[in-house]
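Q: What changes when acetyl coenzyme *A is included in the input?
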Amino acid sequence: MNNLRSLTLNDDAQSLCELPVLTGTTGPNVIDVQHLYRETGLFTYDPGFNSTASCRSTITFIDGEEGVLLYRGYPIEQLAEQCNFLEVCYLILKGELPTTTQLDSFQHNITMHTMVHDQLTNFFKGFRRDAHPMAIMVGVVGALSAFYHDALDIRSKKDREMCSIRLIAKVPTIVAMCHKYSTGLPFMYPNNKLSYVENFLRMMHATPCDDYQANPVLVRALDRILILHADHEQNASTSTVRLAGSSGANPFACITAGIACLWGAAHGGANEAVLNMLEKIGDVSKIPEFINKAKDKNDPFRLMGFGHRVYKNHDPRARLMRTTCHEVLNELGLHDIKLFELALELERIALEDEYFIEKKLYPNVDFYSGIVLHALGIPTNMFTAMFAMGRTVGWIAHWDEMIADPEQKIGRPRQLYTGAMRRDVPADHRKSN
Ligand code: ACO
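A: The predicted holo structure follows.
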């Protein structure tokens, strides 16, 4: 199949059209169906895009069967071991790892944009204190376009770069503000002397009365969470960003669309759902009951943090996150805390269970990241916002790639219509109601 050069569609003995097969650098070849409708009057049908490549991309490669994840060609394992998050951001945005000078300049640029416009704080006051942080994120990140419209010409590379810097710099500040707002504490300004992650942890945990000294093991753990979440090719939220951007919408609006999509429990909401599930399980003795619920076809319950659309092998991010998780639990002496005991036992049982083995359901990155974030003192309802913080760079890189792509068109899928045929509104339709 992979050696095909083209595919001919036949109707009885007659050839309808020839579909070229395109080859990428690596990964499966794709059948180019762009002209299928024009030539045959047919559409393809692929709900959930199981077999559809929506674009060309040079950013990230995943081999779900082999458990491989590459950012710009570099294996995630090497990036997680040898680089920090901002280096990875530079790589994802620009295609190459930065030199020391380039990294210093990038880091400086990001640091100089971490503060948000003071008027933006007014937006928070419009939300209830108990609003979900993702609801606030959707509102406040969307509002950025009302503040930074000096650089919103999407055809200008310079403006696009400025938007990228602003988003990577300001999203952590907004995430921390969401947390402070929901706890009734004053917002903390960023501190330019600190690294990206230290700064974020300080904005989350310090108060004007008490400063916060970050533990280096925890800083490294959060840096790694951000690296592992930085990009994942055409996942649901990234595809949402691309689709929103395909109409020419501004980048702040597009990233907001990504945040909204990420919020769902089947996507970025999974790390929060993991913790909620662990709390519901409550005790190690209850694990078999929940495993049975997950296996029961008539029960909608799923083991949150298990399974992945693409990885049918170990998710390489989950492996790295598992190591980080154990490092953090050791550092903080938390292995014997009930919730963590529960998580580790759940992982052990599920990995040995026939159902999960046969269906290739391994713990995914969010199973462990939820546990690490909990250990870092991040409240459960903030977990998806933390994911958004890491993924922002991936969303921007894809948005930028799409805008610069000469093949770019407005995204407009078609459908298989199964509704009523044309009919007339009865003259007496109100009476018959
Ligand atoms: N618990 C129990 N059974 C599961 C689970 C699970 N977590 N995940 C999949 N299955 C079963 C399904 O019931 C299905 O069984 P069947 O073949 O007997 O019908 C089979 O495994 C395949 O599942 P699909 O839903 O078809 O797989 P898909 O690729 O569409 O879904 C998904 C992937 C959404 C991630 C799914 O595994 C899931 O819901 N997991 C829990 C939520 C989660 O952790 N999401 C985070 C994903 S990672 C991320 O976004 C960063």
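Observations recorded in class: The radius of gyration is 24 Å.
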